[in-house]
Design brief:
The chain is 41% helix and 14% strand. The protein has a single domain, classed as Arc Repressor Mutant, subunit A (Orthogonal Bundle), CATH 1.10.10. The N and C termini lie far apart (63 Å). It has a three-stranded antiparallel β-sheet, covered by helices on one side. It is α+β, with helices and mostly antiparallel strands. The model has no long low-confidence stretch (mean pLDDT 91). The longest helix is centred in the N-terminal third of the chain and has 12 residues. It contains four helices and three strands, in the order αβααββα.
């Protein structure tokens, strides 16, 4: 059997390979990432692995309905309106 790739390589490859056309990230549940990660790494915890890489700045995690989205740092969409923006629009 070929040598396994590292968790970092696996996650990076997953983000690039599993994203749908027009999208820059993947949903960890709906893309099948979580299950694939567990199967490839003998039931290892994908949440722990992705949180570690996010803390190191190698990926970006954004919470969404039903799970999280994973992005490569260079592909992360701009954040939406900030609290400051909302307060300014409200005149407060």
């Amino acid at each position: 059997m070929a040598e396994k790739v590292s968790q970092e390589e696996f996650i990076t490859k997953a983000v690039v390979s599993l994203r749908k056309d027009g999208y820059k990230g993947i949903h960890t549940v709906y893309s099948g990432f979580n299950e694939a990660f567990k199967k490839y790494f003998d039931n290892a915890d994908p949440v722990q692995a992705t949180n570690k890489l996010a803390a190191e700045g190698k990926i970006v995690i954004r919470p969404v309905k039903g799970g999280v989205m994973l992005y490569l740092p260079e592909d992360t969409p701009a954040k939406g309106q900030t609290a400051e923006d909302a307060l300014k629009k409200m005149g407060l």
